[in-house]
Structure formats: C-alpha cells, structure tokens
Amino acid sequence: MEITMNLFVAYIGIAVMIGLAGVGSAFGVTIAGNAALGAMKKNDKFGNFLVLTALPGTQGLYGFAGYYMFQNMFPVLTPEITGIQAAAVLSSGIALGLVGLMSAIRQGQVCANGIVSIGQGYDVMGKTLVLAVFPELYAIVALAGTYLMANAVLAV
Predict the structure, then answer these.
(1) Cβ distance 118 to 47 under 8 Å?
(2) Which among 69, 90, 72, 76 is positioned nearest to 11, based on CA atoms?
(3) In order of start, what are the domains of the chain with their CATH numbers?
(4) How far apart (Å, rounded) are the C-alpha atoms in residues 41 and 45?
(5) Could you say which of 52, 104, 113, 135 has the lowest number of CB atoms within 10 Å?
(6) Cα three-residue angle 21-88-26, rounded to 5 degrees
(7) Which helix (H) or strand (E) holds 68?
C-alpha cells in the first residue's frame, strides 16, 4: 500500500508541474495575443507580434521537461519509488508549476506592453524581447532546481 501511495503522491506532483505551467502559458499567450489583435488595427507588424505572443508558451514546455526528467533521465516514477523520492517529485512539481504559472503570466504582460508600443509605431521589438527574458529566467531556474532534485533523489 505504501508503494502505491508514494507513486500516487509523485504523480500529483507531476500533474501540478505540467498543469500549472501549462495554465500559465495559456494565460500568457492569450494576454499577449489579445494585445496583438488590438495593435494590428493600427499597425500590421504580425511577425513581431507572433514572436512576442508565442514567448510565454515556453513555460508549459518546462513542465513537460520536468516530467521527462523524472520519467526518463532519472527514472524514479516506478512502483519501487521511496517516500523521499515521492516527496521530491511533489515538491519540485509544486515549485516548477507555480513559478511557471507566474512567470508565464507576467511575461505575457511584458510582451503585451511591447506589442502595444510596436502597434503605436515605436521600434521596441528587441528591447521587449530583452525585458521579456527576465521572467523566463525564473522558470529556467525552477527547471534547473527540478533537475537537481531529480538527480539527487535517484540514489535514495
């Protein structure tokens, strides 16, 4: 029974990891996408708007990358999973999920402001990309933390 519960707890972590990061990406790309639709009424820079709209979608990919780490790189998602391994999957899932959620939403807002500025005729594409990278950095740090946790609990 304990083995089944450990695996259950671990998969809750995986669900949170993928789910929250994916929801954040969905919110982020729609925030930027809505701004792009409004900005195209005045200035049709669709290529720029497309790049900035897609950028918040990467956090959802980080959720899948975290799952991949626990499933394939450091395979602990087996019936033999220990309690400490399950706790590591759950905690890294919560961390990566929450950071992915918030960074994608905030990145979408940064991109939306850049899109509005481009729509008004300002040449801020490159500057917006630079500023939009900052929220992305925290999602990357959370993914790196997931990697380190996955690597650490493999031997437990």
Answers:
(1) no
(2) 90
(3) 2-153 (1.20.120.610)
(4) 10
(5) 113
(6) 5
(7) helix 58-68
Tokens at residue 64, please? 């899948």
Q: Are 133 and 53 in contact (CB under 8 A)?
A: no
**pLDDT tens string 104-146:** 999 999 999 999 999 999 999 999 999 999 999 999 999 999 9
Maximum alpha-carbon separation in the chain: 63
Amino acid at 7: L
Please enumerate in sequence order all residues whose Cβ is within 8 A of that of 53, keeping only pairs 6 or more positions apart, or say none: 29, 32, 33, 36, 111, 115
To the question of pTM greater than 0.85 for the whole model, the response is yes
According to DSSP, residue 75 is labeled -
Dig out the tokens for 37 from the structure. Answer: 């639709």
